[in-house]
Amino acid sequence: MISVEKALETVLNSTQGSGVEEIPFIKSVGRILKEDILADRDFPPFNRVSMDGITIDYTSFKNGQRSFEIEGIQAAGSKQITLNNAENCIEVMTGAVLPNNANTVIRYEDVTIENRVATINVDSLNDGQNIHNKGKDGKVGDLLIKQNTKISAAEIGVLATVGKSFVKVAKQPKVMIVSTGDELVGVNEIPLEHQIRRSNVFTLVSLLEKLNIPSETAHITDDKPILKSKIKSFLQEYDVLLFSGAVSKGKFDFLPEVFDELSVEKLFHKITQRPGKPFWFGSAASLSISEQNVYPNEKDNNCKKTIVFGFPGNPISTFVNCLAYFYPWYYKSVGLEVEKETAILSADVTFKPSLTYFLQVKLNSRFGHLIATPITGNGSGDLGSLVKTDAFIQLPDDITTFKKGDIFPIIRYR
User: Which of 200, 414, 215, 184 is nearest to 319 (CA)?
Assistant: First the structure.
């Protein structure tokens, strides 16, 4: 067995990108940006009116003038007009270009308009108020969004503003999720007394959907020749294989043997952790990157491999290993930096085995601090306990008693 730290290091040393693709910007939410987004012009591109109202030459107000004849209207989206008389005003709408010779905007709430004369009802104004000056948010050529940013609704607005109708993003890995076991039946089937419905595979599908990774699923019975045949084809077709079950010491846990016979390199099998100790991880040579549909800038001479995650079959084991190992693998593969979280234990915890303990906790915030309250489940098969908790808190293997108030890393899933 290897430590959690060594296992994670091994997983992260096996990361690989799947290339870059260009997609419509409106479809890019949740994807990882693979180009810098620069301002194609100043932001805003003109002195922009930020309030509905009137605009004047501030000097006239400073000299004591309070009533101004309305000379015209500057609508949003219309060509810039000019204030011809410094003692007059122009009505302006939010988003409009500021008229020439005007420099101060007074909102409608602060003026009275009668017979095309606007009278200012406040005693003081600021020169240049209610104007969003040209280039204040950014100059042409400025970096607006750096590559490796996860695209959200905020980035979508910027992409639209600079005219990026198509955007380069990290291509998602092609993933197959495989469940094994004769005891498993479909979700819509009525299981016999000795059977259970498939659930882990759908948990994994949902965990990948949170990363915007589409996946396919397959179920293979505990028949070694069938396992070997199907897995051989999967290794040629997919970038990542995620297995749930058949990696422990059971008589029908054939996967380690099958992987070996198919020349899948074992990088580790079993980790000093609970739950999820029998985790198997490895890789198999696949097509070279240059043979695959990869964006040209991403091509190199390295051999692309199929990465294999063999998770234990117990539901909590599958769940925690996907979060603790596959998620970091994916983040590094696409170049996304994710900030690690910690939380404060709300109660003492004792755990005697010399194993890293991923303990389920409920999270809440007190006075700006994240508090983790341990929730006792019924072992790694207790799938229902996940709906009562929010995260795993990672307790190290070098001590046995963890005190209330101690701070440890967490892996959040809610």
Answer: 200
Q: Between helices 327-334 and 4-12, what is the axis angle to 10°?
A: 30
Whole-number pLDDT of residue 222: 78
Q: pLDDT of 308-322, one tens digit each?
A: 999 988 889 999 999
Average pLDDT, the chain: 90
pLDDT tens digits for range 245-278: 768 765 547 899 999 999 999 999 999 999 999 9
Token reading at 192: 């016999």
Which string of DSSP letters, residue by residue, matches 267-320? Answer: EEE-BSEES-TT-EEEEEEEEEGGGS---GGG--SSEEEEEEEEE-SSHHHHHH
The amino acid present at 115, given as its one-letter code, is: N
**How many Å apart are CA 63 and CA 91, to the nearest integer?**
21
Q: Quickly tell me which residue has 């959040």 as its tokens.
A: 412
8 A C-beta contact, residue 355 and residue 372: no
Percent of the chain, pLDDT > 90? 79
Domains and CATH numbers, the chain: 4-19+171-338 (3.40.980.10), 27-43+136-169 (3.90.105.10), 48-132 (2.170.190.11), 342-412 (2.40.340.10)
Contacts of 260 (CB under 8 A, 6+ apart): 266
pTM of the model: 0.84
pLDDT in tens, 233-244: 999 999 999 998
End-to-end CA distance of the chain: 30
DSSP state of 99: P
